[in-house]
Amino acid sequence: MPPDFERLKKAMRHEEPDRVPLVEGTIAYEIQSQFLGRKIKGDDLGGQVEFWSKAGYDHFPLTVGMMNPGEITRESSIVGLVENVLKKEEKGEKPWAIEEKGVITNHEDFERFPWEEAARVDLSKFQKVQPFLPEGARILAFSGKVFTLPWMLMGFQNFCMSLYLQEDLVARVIKKVGEIQVGAVKQILGIPKLGGIWAIDDLSYGSGPMVDPKIFRKYVFPWYEEMASLCKKNDLLFFFHSDGNIWPVIEDLIALGIDALHPIDPTCMDIREVKKKVGQKVGILGNIDTDLLARGTPEEVREVTMKTIQDIAPGGGFALGSGNSVPSWAKFENYQAMRETTLKFGAYPIKI
């Protein structure tokens, strides 16, 4: 089937489209390369679009805004952070694991930080990808990290201590990041073939929120409420991603006006409980365990995928994908099992 973004929009209206949509935020280039039988790289927009379209997705992901502090390279005050991020990426480690002291520890650091550079929005990929997009496909633009970026810039321990010792600094950093991210969203609203905004911001551990939810409510969620409002005014979908146990803030997130939650972390949340308790209020995206894709067998993946479709898909409000992303260490045959099972058994009405 050719891409049809209306399929995803219909599902998020809690209607039943022709089939369960497939949805992912990130699929490793190694997986894309195996699927197409040729090397796909980050600058190959045509090849990437070909993969997402042929694999059965109705969307194409692109990043906008200040998504990675490692992109900022000016001023000696941030050299350490940049080098740390780049070294971790080269080793295949998680560059966001900045735990102790960051580059903003006081108001003087805040003033020295190159915010003007951080606020620059590169729209070139949004323009360059246009000739490659099939008629029915739409871009999902990835933004967010209104909570994550501030603690990365401050260092997580310093960030948490500052919540008690200098909350005004934390508020200042979050406000600045929020302004940049919302500003980036505003700049892409006129881009052709834009289908929605997908906010990424890990709020929780498996045990619950990383900080007191009142911090989110006071400083972070208002920015996402503004993003959601912008999307509604422009007929765009608005998705929100957070790993971990988000039960303590799930009603807050729904109240912001989001269309769907991703990925309903299978390591600590039960997607069936989410469907039962809030499935009529918000769409559900996910949630095939990434560890299963990496360690399981195709038969196990098919079984879990079929069961998830059977239990969650009826009535719409659902798009199937991984429980986080499809990384390079996922088995290609397991990714194919998840994808092909959805295409085979996800036709409405569900009959499994």
The major pleated sheet works out as:
7 strands, parallel
Enumerate how many helices there are, as a single number. Answer: 16
Strand order of the largest sheet: 1-2-3-6-7-8-9
Residue share in β-strands = 5-15%
Tell me roughly what share of residues is in helical segments: 40-55%
How many domains make up the 3D coordinates? Answer: 1
- Provide the CATH top-level class: Alpha Beta
Question: How widely separated are the two ends?
Answer: 21 Å
Globally, the shape reads: globular
SSE string, helices as H and strands as E: HHHEHHHHEHHHEEEHEHEHEHHEH
Describe this structure in words.
There is one protein chain. The strands form 2 sheets. The protein has a 7-stranded parallel β-sheet, sandwiched between helices. Strands 4-5 form a two-stranded antiparallel ribbon. A hairpin with a 2-residue loop joins strand 4 and strand 5. The longest helix has 22 residues, at 167-188. Helix 2 crosses helix 3, helix 10 (167-188) runs parallel beside helix 11 and helix 15 (298-312) runs parallel beside helix 16. It has 16 helices and 9 strands. The two termini are 21 Å apart. The chain has 352 residues and is α/β, with parallel strands linked by helices. The model is unreliable at 69-83 (pLDDT under 50).
